[in-house]
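Just scan this pair:

***
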Amino acid sequence: MPIWLQAHLVSVLNGFAIGFLLFILAVGLSLVFGMMDVLNLAHGALFLGGAYLGATLGGTASWGGFLAALGIAAVAGLAAGGALSLMTEPLRNRSHLDQALLTLGVALVAAELLSIVFGDNPLAASAPSGLDGSVAVLGATYPTYRLALIGIGAVLALAVYLVVDRTWVGALVRATVADREMVTTVGVDNRLVKAAVFAVGSLLATTAGVLGGPIYGARSGLDSTVLILALVVVVIGGLGSVRGALVGALVIGQIESLGRALLPDLASFVLFGALAVVLVLRPRGLFGQVAVDR
């Protein structure tokens, strides 16, 4: 193994763990914005809600609490996605600025409510028993939970790709994106398709919050932090692309981890520098599609 990689193996693995977590968060945002043409700035608040659930129910390192937090977060995400879809439906033919203002207002209200309910003090979340230790990886000691997170993220990435690109469900979504009127004429309510995509995207955001609890914890302001990272991932990867969301998330994960390890004072500059380079060379992102006139 190269000396450089051996010296920074933990940071590289951290980059993969953060990257796959960002993928789970960002792919929903990418699909909602890229396919349904709705800019949802409440996505970070959904992550924060999941993080608080994980810290509250799964804070004792028990599998029961952790799985309960995941289940409640999934149901809450579905409900929140459906509600957001209804709220943004009247704005379908208006500018993205109107959508952004509405969902930003929802995010601010949700973050304030979470602060009132859970307080302003940061909450820590523990990994479930059996995943709360460390294992040896190529001579380095690494947390078991983060390795498990890498595996979960990889499985979810494959599952989302197969559903979107290889099933009739994904074909219906893509058809709705390409021609809503045609989908309506064959008897499918395109509003239900939009609501379903919104609900699944929100579900992924809330469950990502639970999964990210042992890494980030739960605290005020976390929603803004992860929203910015998710938006960077979406812009780099390209709107509506599962592959783009995955590549963008892994790139940002490595920049976040290695940047803070090697250039702690310049990490943010490196992050947004990468974003600027992609925007200059590939304005639609690495795997972005040509915009469809809707």
In short: The mean pLDDT is 86.
